[in-house]
Write a structure and sequence with these properties.
about 150 residues, mainly alpha, Multidrug-efflux Transporter Regulator, Chain: A, Domain 2, 2 domains, two-stranded antiparallel ribbon, 2 strands, about 5% strand
Length: about 150
């Protein structure tokens, strides 16, 4: 398949396909004139990349889970960690959603006087702070790994 066919089948722009190839996520099998050609298996590789991105994995994390032949080499620990992160985010978003719904329907004269709203507000705030703290820790750890 040439690069235009792959782009059409997947909806992934040719520029992105070239970038993925440069990063080693996919590999062309040659050229036909000036156009790159890919084996049909590239469609599965692109589906794995899309799935990884939907899960919030970076391209480097996704690349680490692709074997040299392009098949999956799944890092189960990374997937468990990502699933745990998603679960934390879901809990935080549920708390925020409950708080917003309660605020919209609350009959208290002021939200400052509503214990339910105040409890949900604290829960959402602590979750947001935890999320920011984890993001800072991850950035700091990433910088340390690069320095090593």
């Amino acid at each position: 398949m040439d690069i235009a066919e792959v782009a059409k089948c997947t909806g992934v722009p040719a520029s992105t396909l070239r970038y993925y190839e440069k990063k080693g996520l996919i590999a062309s099998v040659g050229r036909q004139g000036i156009r790159r050609r890919f084996a049909p298996g590239v469609l599965d590789q692109l589906a794995l990349i899309a799935l990884g991105q939907a899960a919030g994995l970076s391209l480097d994390e996704i690349g680490s889970m692709l074997s040299p032949n392009g098949g999956p080499a799944i890092n189960r620990r990374l997937l468990v960690d990502k699933a745990d992160e998603i679960e934390r985010t879901i809990r935080q978003l549920r708390a925020v959603s409950r708080g917003l719904r309660h605020a919209a329907a609350c009959r208290a004269p002021s939200h400052a006087e509503c214990p339910t709203f105040q409890r949900l507000l604290r829960a959402a705030a602590s979750g947001a702070l935890e999320s920011r703290r984890q993001g800072s820790d991850m950035q700091r750890n990433g910088k340390q790994r690069r320095a090593e």
